């Protein structure tokens, strides 16, 4: 199995899932939880690659139908953006990380306008230096060579309550790939019963900024322009009026 890890789309938990499956015995013996992957990755440089081509070359994976699955957790673009903003901007600013988030402080309008400009510059190859914020706010379709590899992917939709939508899809894929029942139960326990330490779901800040964004036609227009192809590719509804 190959999983495309995308920031703010359960990246920490999926990193843990794939690391666990890489060496279940060693992972369980370590006493780690998937959330520990946020600070120190147990499988760093062991089962990680920077491109799909590198994975294909390493394991000689054909471009025709094989026993391999390529998967990616996708997330509603508005929900993902707000989660990223609260995590990378609001929380870090409270820790006096004043250089974060385009220097905009808690001004979400300023951040969105500047990040849109950055995305346009990168898109037209006028800027190549990328920040940690860019990694969290890049369109999902910009990840994992989707422009060339999309037909090989299985897209699993994120849900704040993993039991609603995400886990049934993921469990189905794991079963098809013949992952043992005990291993699936271990993964389910991590995903359903343990919350990532940098999750923003259900927090007052997430509710506040989400409400502010969806009530602003001006800001929503920027979000739609930034993530238009995420909406289309992953079948998420555009905001009313767009």
TrEMBL record:
Pfam families: Sulfotransfer_2. GO terms for biological process: chondroitin sulfate proteoglycan biosynthetic process; positive regulation of response to oxidative stress. It comes from the Eukaryota. One of its GO terms (cellular component) is membrane. One of its GO terms (molecular function) is chondroitin 4-sulfotransferase activity. Signal peptide: none annotated. InterPro entries: Chst-1-like (IPR007669), Sulfotransferase (IPR005331). PANTHER family: PROTEIN CBG14245-RELATED, PROTEIN CBG14246. This is Carbohydrate sulfotransferase. It comes from Caenorhabditis tropicalis.
């Amino acid at each position: 199995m190959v999983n495309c890890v995308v920031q703010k789309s359960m990246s920490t938990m999926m990193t843990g899932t794939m690391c666990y499956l890489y060496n279940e015995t060693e992972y369980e013996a370590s006493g780690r939880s998937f959330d520990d992957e946020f600070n120190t990755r147990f499988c760093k440089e062991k089962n990680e690659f920077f491109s799909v081509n590198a994975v294909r070359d390493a394991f000689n994976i054909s471009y025709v139908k094989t026993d391999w699955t390529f998967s990616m957790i996708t997330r509603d673009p508005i929900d993902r953006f707000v989660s990223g903003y609260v995590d990378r901007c609001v929380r870090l600013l409270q820790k006096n990380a004043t250089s974060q988030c385009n220097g905009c402080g808690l001004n979400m309008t300023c951040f969105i306008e500047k990040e849109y400009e950055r995305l346009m510059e990168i898109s037209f190859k006028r800027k190549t230096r990328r920040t940690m914020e860019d990694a969290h706010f890049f369109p999902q379709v910009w990840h994992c060579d989707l422009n060339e590899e999309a037909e090989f992917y299985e897209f699993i939709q994120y849900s704040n309550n993993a039991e609603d939508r995400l886990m049934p899809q993921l469990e189905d894929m794991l079963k098809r790939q013949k992952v043992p029942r005990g291993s699936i139960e271990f993964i389910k326990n991590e995903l359903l019963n343990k919350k990532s330490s940098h999750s923003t779901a259900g927090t007052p800040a997430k509710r506040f900024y989400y409400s502010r964004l969806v009530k602003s036609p001006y800001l929503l227009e920027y979000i739609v322009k930034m993530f238009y192809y995420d909406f289309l590719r992953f079948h998420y509804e555009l905001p009313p009026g767009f």
